[in-house]
């Protein structure tokens, strides 16, 4: 017997309650003001690799969608990140955060210094969306169900604890509070409607678990490399690299 939509939605939400990366100790440090300036910079650099890959993930998804209505709705996700004539987009907002913490935005945009584990995790997510079923691809995006809470906590924590935090540097998170709800409302309903067998529900739940693992592993990499600085892997960002003062000189 196939569980009801209500039961299935509760299952998806429980995955977030148990596995979303707001439970990771690095986020507790970041939001609590316990990160050093270099630990914040490492987070900004590595998270940028995820941000800049999201439009490529969505483009890979759209390339397989035959339904023009679904493509039209999904297209706004790319515009939210890449920007339009009237919206600078999330990627530019993230680079403004990078500049606020003292990083050269050109260095951050080059993706030099990204941790190997970050690169592997994010690239795996892009491949997952490109290669798996459309249902699994959409289900993986449902971590957005849990994102508004972490964005709100982040805005509050950064404003309270870091001098760089202001309306300009945190504009990425404020905009996601407005953008994400429309995306997740559509995505959740689409998954609930299309996961119409127990097997499809299992596949969608597994896809969401995969995505939480992608997010969690990025923070594991940051924690291992920069909370314990002796474990920065070869080729990854070293404190002192890619700073604005270097470009000015």
UniProtKB/TrEMBL annotation:
Coiled coil: none annotated. It is an enzyme of class 1 (oxidoreductase). It catalyses: 6-(2-amino-2-carboxyethyl)-7,8-dioxo-1,2,3,4,7,8-hexahydroquinoline-2,4-dicarboxylate + 3 O2 = pyrroloquinoline quinone + 2 H2O2 + 2 H2O + H(+). Its EC number is 1.3.3.11. One of its GO terms (biological process) is pyrroloquinoline quinone biosynthetic process. Pathway: Cofactor biosynthesis; pyrroloquinoline quinone biosynthesis. Keywords: Oxidoreductase, PQQ biosynthesis. Residues 10-220 form the Thiaminase-2/PQQC domain. The keyword Repressor does not apply. One of its GO terms (molecular function) is pyrroloquinoline-quinone synthase activity. It comes from the Bacteria. HAMAP family: PQQ_syn_PqqC (MF_00654). Ring cyclization and eight-electron oxidation of 3a-(2-amino-2-carboxyethyl)-4,5-dioxo-4,5,6,7,8,9-hexahydroquinoline-7,9-dicarboxylic-acid to PQQ. Belongs to the PqqC family. NCBIfam families: PQQ_syn_pqqC. This is Pyrroloquinoline-quinone synthase. It comes from Roseovarius tolerans.
